[in-house]
Design a protein that fits this description.
By secondary structure, this protein is of the alpha+beta class. It has a 4-stranded mixed sheet with strand order 1-9-8-5. The chain has a 3-stranded parallel sheet with strand order 3-2-4, with helices on both faces. A 3-stranded antiparallel sheet has the order 7-6-13, with no helix packed on it. Helix 1 packs across helix 8 and helix 2 (about 30-45) runs parallel beside helix 8 (about 235-245). A hairpin with a 5-residue loop joins strand 6 and strand 7. It has 2 domains: about 5-245, Type I PLP-dependent aspartate aminotransferase-like (Major domain) (Aspartate Aminotransferase, domain 2), CATH 3.40.640.10; about 245-370, Aspartate Aminotransferase, domain 1, CATH 3.90.1150. It has 12 helices and 15 strands. Bound molecules: pyridoxal-5'-phosphate. Pyridoxal-5'-phosphate (PLP) binds near residues 81, 127, 153 and 194.
Length: about 375
């Protein structure tokens, strides 16, 4: 699904030097590259504060802790997302409230969000799934009407742009109260291990996020609030500093690959290429098709067919949140999320990364098409 070796071969000299520099400096924790990377990422995103942490799941958890949510508070999230988004809600003894997604964008459905708001709603967590921004203008309007903070889960969409109706634009993850991301190696901006970050324009929140990620410490050995230990390794920051410089070029290559696939699949009766909403620039973390058919075994059959041809393919995600055993005690089984269920049974993702060449893309597309002939 991804090719992390080819880019490394290209950047080897630069990356090896940066890693060895860290080892020689022995500043493995909170070394200079950590501050350098946070600053560089803040500049790239045009956001005031970037607070690094250990991974994207921690970023979500620390964001929720910083908002001072209390057990029993309701947090609205889509059911159609990676488990991390909803898992941390439950971990903090908050109540996940699952809402429906849009059938075309896979992202939070704003009407469903509006209906789910109660006096107990204390946060909204939109997820920019597969590389496409949620409709942030509409989401922020609903959130502001009710004075509810928004945590953007931007793990899959770093570098994405959202276009407001007034003609301005912002990077995804910098529109809500807090944005979070992951530097898991396979993400669009990946480290060579784990990593994550939070973004905010709010000075007081930035201070709280920093403190919580560092044992709630205000100054050394003085702990004001309950926090955790969540740090971005210096070695990972040094690698990310280099990879960040290639992010835009890599996004352009992803978009080009998506264009190639989508051109091959256009006007097909069953294969539905990803829809790209006009309000944002899709950065194609995943290239996910919908198989628009009611044949129950079709998707798994295609998956097996492609695997037989040694073409990687994945189902993101076969089981939505409201059908996970983990959430049974939160009343998850009572949800009726028809669109989420419909999509869950029909999505399939093809290889997507900046190193795909036209020959590979055509080979993959030809084989997908051949299955239906
Ligand atoms: C990857 C991912 C996360 C979690 O990131 P980790 O770094 O693996 O903890 C959270 N949310 C979404 C949508 C993700 O894709």
């Amino acid at each position: 699904m991804v090719d992390l070796k080819t880019e490394y071969q290209r950047l080897k000299k630069e990356i090896d030097t940066a890693v060895i520099d860290v080892i020689e400096s022995a500043a493995f924790i909170n070394g200079k590259p950590v501050q350098d990377f946070s600053k560089a990422l803040a500049d790239y995103l045009n956001v005031k504060h970037v607070i690094p942490c250990a991974n994207g799941t921690d970023a979500l958890q620390i964001a929720m802790m910083a908002l001072d949510l209390q057990p029993g508070d309701e947090v609205i999230t889509p059911s159609f997302t990676y488990i991390a988004t909803t898992e941390v809600v439950a971990l903090l003894r908050l109540n996940p409230v699952f809402v429906e997604v849009d059938k075309q964008t896979f992202n939070i459905d704003v009407e469903s969000l509006r209906k789910a708001i109660t006096p107990k709603t204390k946060a909204i967590v939109p997820v920019h799934l597969y590389g496409q921004s949620c409709d942030m203008e509409a989401i922020m309007q609903v959130a502001n009407e009710h004075n509810i903070p928004v945590i953007e889960d931007n793990a899959q969409s770093i570098g994405g742009d959202y276009y407001f109706t007034d003609g301005t634009s912002k990077k995804t993850g910098t529109i809500g109260t807090i944005g979070t991301t992951s530097f898991y190696p396979a993400k669009n901006l990946g480290a060579y291990g784990d990593g994550g970050a939070m973004f905010t324009n709010d000075d007081a929140l930035a201070q709280r996020l920093t403190m919580i990620a560092n044992h709630g410490q205000s100054k050394r050995y003085y702990h004001d609030v309950v926090g955790c230990n969540s740090r971005l390794d210096t070695i990972q920051a040094a690698i990310l500093n280099i990879r960040l410089q290639h992010l835009d070029k890599n996004i352009a290559a992803r978009i080009k690959a998506a264009d190639h696939y989508s051109d091959a699949f256009k006007d097909h009766s069953i294969i539905q290429p990803p829809f790209r909403a006009k309000n944002n620039r899709h950065v194609f973390h995943q290239y996910t098709l919908i198989l628009n058919s009611d044949r129950k075994d079709l998707r798994d059959d295609l998956s097996a067919y492609l695997s037989g041809k040694k073409i990687p393919n994945m189902i993101y995600y076969p089981v939505p949140g409201h059908r996970q055993k983990m959430f049974e005690t939160f009343g998850a089984l009572e949800y009726k999320l028809a669109v989420t269920d419909w999509l869950t049974e029909r999505v399939i993702s093809l290889p997507m990364h900046p190193e795909l060449d036209e020959e590979q893309l055509q080979f993959i597309a030809d084989n997908v098409l051949a299955y239906f002939n």
